[in-house]
Backbone:
């Protein structure tokens, strides 16, 4: 029984890094395509995924919800559950600024 408890503790520790949430950071601007890489994979249903938040934000701003608007719109991260739409950059014109940097629209 002790071996089982030890094995369980080792597995939990090893997997902790794999399932760590990577939510947006408050105060930064994100392309929709970048937000959709945040959080955990969709098959881990108890963790964030931004697709539904993006659709809601686009609808709230009376924007189209097609794939171009989902991927190439700029959103401001107020917090993990609050990503208001800022602007549509145009298809393929939302630029990833890199980790811990603002994304932006290509001019």
Residues:
């Amino acid at each position: 029984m002790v071996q089982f408890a030890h094995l369980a503790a080792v597995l939990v520790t090893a997997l902790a890094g794999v399932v760590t949430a990577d939510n947006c950071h408050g105060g930064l601007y994100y392309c929709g395509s970048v937000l959709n890489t945040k959080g955990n994979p969709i098959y881990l249903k108890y963790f964030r995924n931004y697709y539904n938040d993006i659709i809601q934000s686009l609808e709230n701003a009376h924007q189209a919800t097609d794939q171009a608007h989902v991927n190439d719109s700029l959103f401001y991260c107020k917090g993990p559950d609050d990503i208001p739409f800022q602007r549509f950059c145009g298809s393929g014109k939302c630029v990833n600024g890199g980790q811990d940097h603002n994304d932006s629209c290509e001019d």
